[in-house]
Design a protein that fits this description.
The structure is a single chain. This protein is of the alpha+beta class and 173 residues long. Among the domains are: 62 residues, no CATH class; 52 residues, Orthogonal Bundle (DNA Binding (I), subunit A), CATH 1.10.30. The strands form two sheets. It has a four-stranded mixed sheet with strand order 2-1-4-3, with helices on one face. A two-stranded antiparallel ribbon has the order 5-6. A hairpin with a 4-residue loop joins strand 3 and strand 4.
Length: 173
């Protein structure tokens, strides 16, 4: 159903704020609280009017909100590593979290010690360090860069190509 399509909401400064549904975006547009930057496909029909389905909207006033610290979660690690195994370089949705220095050897559960790994690479590495397993990390793990204060689900990044120009900090290809 068209009213359930996702819409990227930008702040007045074009900073990504949120993802809402078409129904909420049309209400914001109708009330004059937002402007449509990109239209999606189709129209929503009312008794007296037709409204284009928005894909990207920008709010008319600046919304200030605190910048939360990124929490160390599985999804955030996968997002930081762009859903790529850090050992073999394969892009996949079947990823696991690998502790570069295993926890039983004193490795911490920190941004600098966790990496995305496919199931086969994680099994091959097992409880060893990358050097002992003769495996090399594509890049050393580090805290994520950028100030993106919300998570954009992977399937939206793949299906909503028009959003890419409004999300430069993701460096999408």
């Amino acid at each position: 159903m068209v009213i359930n399509f996702p819409v990227l909401v930008l702040n007045q400064s074009y900073e990504p704020l949120n993802i809402c549904r078409v129904q909420r975006a049309v209400v914001l547009l109708y009330q004059g609280r937002a402007e449509m930057l990109e239209d999606g496909t189709g129209f929503i029909h009312s008794v007296t009017q037709d409204f284009p389905v928005p894909s990207v909207i920008r709010l008319g006033c600046m919304i200030k909100r605190p910048r939360p610290q990124r929490r160390l979660t599985r999804l955030e690690v996968f997002h930081r590593d762009r859903y790529i195994c850090q050992y073999c370089g394969r892009e996949t949705r079947q990823l696991t979290i690998d502790h570069v220095i295993p926890r039983y050897r004193g490795g911490q559960h920190t941004w600098e010690n966790v990496a995305s790994a496919c199931v086969s690479c994680n099994r091959r590495k097992a409880g060893k360090t990358p050097g002992e397993a003769r495996m090399k990390l594509a890049r050393p793990p580090a805290p994520p860069r950028g100030n993106l204060s919300f998570y954009i689900p992977y399937h939206y990044l793949q299906s909503q190509k028009v959003w890419h120009k409004y999300l430069p900090q993701l460096k999408l290809a």
